[in-house]
Amino acid sequence: MPRGGIEETQWLSFLEVVQGVQLQQVPDRLGWTLDSSDSFSVSSVKYALNSGLVPSGDRGTRWNNWVPIKLNILVWRIQLSSIPTRERLSIRGVMVPSIMCPGCMVKAETIEHIFAGCCDLRDIWGRVAIWWGLSLPLQISVQSIINWLEGVNLSRGQRKAFDAIIITSFWCLWNFCNSTIFGMVLPKKSVIFDDVVEKSFFLDF
Ligand SMILES: [Zn+2]
Fold first, then answer.
1. What residues pack around ion ligand 1 (CB closer than 5 A)?
2. Which DSSP string do the residues of the chain spell out, in sequence order?
3. What's the gap in Å between 122 CA and the centre of ligand 1?
4. Which phi and psi angles does 96 have, rounded to 5°?
5. CA 205 – ligand 1 centroid, Å
6. Residue 164 contacts by C-beta under 8 Å, 6 or more apart in sequence?
7. Ligand 1 centroid vs 20 CA: distance in angstroms?
């Protein structure tokens, strides 16, 4: 029979829970269950929020302090597929003059295409490889370029510098694509690599 609007099975479950509780002869008090010390701490709130709300990826965040933060953020966003390519803008209903790649004008401007697949733009990776005397990854893809560093035989300092070059190259490719839309002067594909070298030396971003 229902008791006060509670179904019989719910009532029995409630009784089971309550019967297992042992009350102590101490005054009532407020506690903070998010921290083992039972005391409020900002770090415990941060930890609870991070573990409950912030998604964790399957790969670590790339960070190189030899290049500006905005470049690191760009590569991070590329890995998350969250940069506004023309194709993505179009899918979201933003009016763009064209969704085609500004490099080849043949295929849609997707992340994979402009950073790795475009026959007119991916030459930059070959030039970086020649510059550093390294072999290209067997298959050129965004992820293989990002992971390129893992398979090269360089000293610790060289690795960090090479990593900075890869990040800068991503930046220059993205700049090139944006400049074709927003720039006052149409950029030239032939100077993308020169741009990488110049920015790497002078840190002029
Ligand atoms: Zn292209």
1. 101, 103-104, 118
2. --BTTB-HHHHHHHHHHHHT----SS------TTSTTSS--HHHHHHHHHHHHS---SSPPP--TTS-HHHHHHHHHHHTT-S--HHHHHHTT---S--B-TTTSSSB--HHIIIII-TTTTHHHHHHHHHHT-PPPSS--HHHHHTGGGG----HHHHHHHHHHHHHHHHHHHHHHHHHHH-SS---GGGHHHHHHHHHHH---
3. 9
4. -125, 145
5. 24
6. 64, 66, 67, 200
7. 67
Q: How large is the C-alpha radius of gyration of the chain?
A: 27
What's the CA-to-centroid distance between 74 and ligand 1, angstroms?
Answer: 19
pLDDT at 54: 61
CB 168 within 8 A of CB 174: no
pTM across the whole model: 0.71
- The string of pLDDT tens digits covering residues 117-126 is 999 999 999 9
Query: Do residues 100 and 86 make contact, with C-beta atoms less than 8 angstroms apart?
Result: yes
Structure tokens at 184: 């006052």
